Amino acid sequence: MAPVPQKQQLEGEETIPEKDSSSSNSHEVLMKSKVTVVGSGNWGSVAAKLIASNTIKLSSFHDEVRMWVFEETLPTGEKLTEVINRTNENVKYLPGIKLGKNVVADPDLEHAVKDASMLVFVTPHQFMEGICRRLVGKIKGDVQAISLIKGMEVKMEGPCMISTLISEKLGINCCVLMGANIANEIAVEKFSEATVGYREDKEVAERWVRLFSTPYFLVSAVQDVEGVELCGTLKNVVAIGAGLVDGLEMGNNTKAAIMRIGLREMRAFSKLMFSSVRDSTFFESCGVADLITTCLGGRNRKVAEAFAKNGGKRCFDELEAELLQGQKLQGVSTAKEVYEVLSHRGWLELFPLFTTVHEICIGRLPPSAIVEYSEHTPKFSLVEGSAQYY
Ligand SMILES: NC(=O)C1=CN([C@@H]2O[C@H](COP(=O)(O)OP(=O)(O)OC[C@H]3O[C@@H](n4cnc5c(N)ncnc54)[C@H](O)[C@@H]3O)[C@@H](O)[C@H]2O)C=CC1
Ligand SMILES: O=C(CO)COP(=O)(O)O
């Protein structure tokens, strides 16, 4: 193997050879990074497990992975962090799965991030603004971040992706990792793929790829942060549509139609928001593959199915609490956020699926409207007629 040029060592940084010769570059000498995972839900816990299985093998990372836990008291009266650290399991959000002895649960956000050089953000998106506020001035200056969060915020100026929120509030570079990644399947090490989106620094992206890749979790990188992140965010809205179709027992053809129309709207919306978004991104794991898996087996699908079965009489919040027991849906709030953007720009008619999903979620339309076109609902032909957006 050809020798790899060594990176220039910065003051105070250790350089050590890789622990494992099977790592991507056995002779590579890298600066040792300390990883903190901010979040510990269903996917957050699996991400910590994946990362911990690599930091223990690769000498360019410290073994320990700190995982910030939004503290809660379990029905037994114990604190969740104490139980995670005693049993090595997140008994609430990922029961039955050992996280790795090098995962340390920490209820103190500032303490958890203090020494980190790599921050992995993976909380439900609605909590990120508050988390960022708490982190201002609390992290190291040269830290790199990655967001696994599927969602966005809507500001007066327009939509703000979560990676942008992190970058702007904390003044750090932020990549994204999205993909067809139902957490419970990856937890039991079933094969899947994921996509890292990066802005400019390919070397940083490759470091994230090394941190996450395992034989059962294949990660590739593309230079399209917004495209990757919008794929992960918008497919949750389509998954609500797919769940409604399931609840109405309309069958596979209808669900496939919703997925196809949804994919078109995902691409159109993404390109209208960011002209840099690449078509090829939609063929990565973060695109069509995530759309398919979420529409087949995700939580958004599941809760929307129950919503339709109940004829829209029980609201999403109530069904979410009952069916997900603390886990959070992203699709309903994302549908609202997308609707706000579309409405503000006068584009509602160009996105009939996104628009209809939101109007069903808030009870303005019945679940059956997902496939009904009346005077009051936008027509799919309008999208066909707006080919310039596609
Ligand atoms: N679960 C999955 O299969 C996948 C999830 N994702 C994405 O990852 C992100 C995180 O999802 P999960 O880890 O599954 O979380 P989750 O859906 O299991 O959410 C529950 C988490 O939110 C925390 N929480 C509750 N209230 C909070 C508060 N006020 N402040 C901060 N945290 C609070 C809980 O402690 C818990 O850790 C989401 O954007 C999701 O779309 C992405 C791929 C797969
Ligand atoms: O993002 C996911 C799979 O990649 C999980 O989707 P749900 O939140 O609908 O379960």
UniProtKB/TrEMBL annotation:
Domain Glycerol-3-phosphate dehydrogenase NAD-dependent N-terminal: 34-202
Domain (Glycerol-3-phosphate dehydrogenase NAD-dependent C-terminal): residue spans on this chain: 224-372
Binding positions (substrate): K150, R299, N300
Keyword list, A-Z: NAD, Oxidoreductase
Entries under Pfam families matching the protein: NAD_Gly3P_dh_C, NAD_Gly3P_dh_N
GO BP, one annotated term: carbohydrate metabolic process
An example Gene Ontology CC term for this record: cytosol
Keyword Oxidoreductase: yes
InterPro entries: 6-PGluconate_DH-like_C_sf, 6PGD_dom2, G3P_DH_NAD-dep, G3P_DH_NAD-dep_C, G3P_DH_NAD-dep_euk, G3P_DH_NAD-dep_N, NAD(P)-bd_dom_sf
Binding-site list for NAD(+): G39, S40, G41, N42, W43, G44, F70, F127, A183, R299, K328, Q330
Region entry Disordered, spans: 1-27
Keyword Coiled coil attached: no
EC category name: oxidoreductase
EC number in record: 1.1.1.8
Gene Ontology molecular function: glycerol-3-phosphate dehydrogenase (NAD+) activity; NAD binding; protein homodimerization activity
SUPFAM superfamilies reported for this sequence: 6-phosphogluconate dehydrogenase C-terminal domain-like, NAD(P)-binding Rossmann-fold domains
Active site per UniProt: K235
Catalytic activity: sn-glycerol 3-phosphate + NAD(+) = dihydroxyacetone phosphate + NADH + H(+)
PANTHER family given in the database record: GLYCEROL-3-PHOSPHATE DEHYDROGENASE, GLYCEROL-3-PHOSPHATE DEHYDROGENASE [NAD(+)]-RELATED
NCBIfam families, A to Z: glycerol3P_DH
Family: Belongs to the NAD-dependent glycerol-3-phosphate dehydrogenase family.
Protein name per its UniProtKB record: Glycerol-3-phosphate dehydrogenase [NAD(+)]
Organism, scientific name: Tetracentron sinense (Spur-leaf)
